[in-house]
C-alpha cells in the first residue's frame, strides 16, 4: 500500500465574500415538466438490508477489515486502494491554460419533452419489435415503456447475440444497462432447461459493478426485463450487508443472474460453500463501468474473479469513458477478437451538448458561501429542482451536508460511511423526489440513474477526467437538459487542462452579500467539531495523494490550513501520529499530531 493510501480523499469548502455572479443558475429556464411515467418501482430484488458496520479508530477511520472484505467503492472512499493518483491529465488532451473571462450566457432555453428529451438523439430508429429477441423479453421491454432502442442498444444487441465479446462506449444516461442485460437474458433463456431447473442452479450471468447503488439498480432493471421469464431470477451481493445473510438468501433462493460488487463477490468465492461451483456455470460476464472497476487496487480482485469463471464465456464491458487501461483489460478479460463499439462519434464530445457546463475558480474560503448562493438561486428558479453535489471524500461530504442542512436547505447525504440501509433509503427517495439536494461522495458518480437531475455541482478537483464526466452524467440523461458546475480553488485550476476539449466555460464568481456570508459562517460554526476534524483529515489525505497538489508537502499543509480556516477553525485539528505516518506526513512542519 502506498504512503498516501490510507486516508480519505477530500474536497474543499468555505465561506466569505465574492464578486459578481451573473446568474449562472439564474439562467435556468423552464421548470421541468414532470414525466408522465411513474417512478421506477421499488426493487423487489433480493437485497439484504442488514448493516455490517466497520470498527473505526475515530475520525477518518482506519478500517479494520481486510481489504478483500470491501467492495470497490468503499475502497475508493477510504483511499485504501486508491493508488491511482489524481493527476488531472486526460489522455491526448491539450495542456494550454484556460482563458480567463466573463461567464458566457449559456443557452438554457432548450426544454426537454416527455419522450425523448431535447432532441431524442439518444434513441435510434429501430424498434425492439424489429429485433431478434424472444416474445417474453419483448413483452417485458414494452411493459417497461421502451419502444425504440437507444443507439448503444441498437449497435450492440446484434453483436452480443452473435456471441461476440463486446467493449462498448456510449455517453452517460443512454441505456447501457439494458444494452447488456437484454441480450444476456436472451442467452440465458436459450440455455437448456436442465441447467435452469436445478435445485441450486449455476450462476449463468455475472454482472460486476463498482458501487452498491449501481448493483442494486442493475438488478432492478434486470427484474423488469425478467418479468415474463419466470424461471430466471436475479440476486445482488454487495458490501455493507452481512455475508451470512447473503449466504442464507442465496441458499434459499439461488438465482442464475448475480449482480455484485467485486470485494463482496471475492468474499463469497473464498467463504461461501458451493459458490465457486455455481460460478463455473457463468456464460456471460459483464463488467459495468469497467474503468472504475479496474482502478488499481481492484484489479487483483477482478483477476481473481475472472479466474473463477469459465474461460469459455462471453464478456461485455460497458462504460461512458474508455481510457487506455480498459482497452488493456481485454488481455485478461476478453477474447482477442472482441468488438469495440463506440457510439460516441469522432470529434463529438464525451459529454452531452444539452448539458451546460461551467467552472468557477474561487478562493477556498468562499466556497461554502458560493455553494449556498448558487443553490438558493437554483431552488428559487426551479420548483422541481433536483441537485447533486459531489464532494471529494465521504467525510467532506458529511461536512458539506451538515453545513447546508444548518442553512435549512432540503439536504440528503450519501457516502460510504453511511449504513447500507440508510444509503438505500436516501437513494430511493432521491430517485422518486423533486425539491431535494443530494450531497454525495463518488458512490453516486457512476451509473446511478436518478431521473431529472437539474444541476450537478462538483466541489473540489475530481479524481480524474473520467470521474468528472461520469459525475456530470447524472444530469442530462435520456436527452434531457441539465447543468453542471465545477467549483475549484485557484490551485486546482490545473485540472481544467484535462477537460479542455469539453464545452465548459467559466462562470464569474457571484457576489455574496455580507449578511449571507454571516449566515453561512454561523452555520459553519454550528457544525460539530468532530465532523470538522474528520473532514480536515480526509481533505489532507485526498490532496496528499494528488500528484499535482500533494507533491510539495509544505504547500499542502498551508492549503490544508486554509481549508481548516474555512471551517471557522483558528487552529487546524491534530491528526493521530499513526495516520500521519501512513500518509508520509509525519515530519512535515505545520501539522499537529496526537
Ligand atoms: N430503449 C429505451 N427507451 C427509453 N428509455 C430507456 C431505454 N433504455 C433504457 N432506458 C432508460 O434510460 C435511462 C438511462 O439508462 P442507463 O442508466 O442504463 O444509462 P447508462 O448509459 O448506463 O448511463 P451511465 O453511463 O450513467 O451508467 C434509464 O432510466 C433506463 O430505464
UniProtKB/TrEMBL annotation:
Keyword RNA-binding recorded: yes
Motif (Q motif): 126-154
Domain Helicase ATP-binding per the UniProt entry, residue ranges: 157-340
Catalytic activity: ATP + H2O = ADP + phosphate + H(+)
Domain Helicase C-terminal intervals: 370-520
Region (Disordered): 56-80, 92-120
Alphabetically ordered keywords of this record: ATP-binding, Helicase, Hydrolase, Nucleotide-binding, RNA-binding
GO molecular function: ATP binding; hydrolase activity; RNA binding; RNA helicase activity
Annotated ranges, domain DEAD-box RNA helicase Q: 126-154
Coiled coil region boundaries: none
EC number: 3.6.4.13
Superkingdom, taxonomy of origin: Eukaryota
One Pfam family this sequence matches: Helicase_C
Function: RNA helicase.
Comment text on domains: The Q motif is unique to and characteristic of the DEAD box family of RNA helicases and controls ATP binding and hydrolysis.
Protein family membership: Belongs to the DEAD box helicase family.
Name the record gives this protein: ATP-dependent RNA helicase
Organism: Oryza glaberrima (African rice)
Lineage: Eukaryota, Viridiplantae, Streptophyta, Embryophyta, Tracheophyta
Gene that produces this protein: LOC127780005
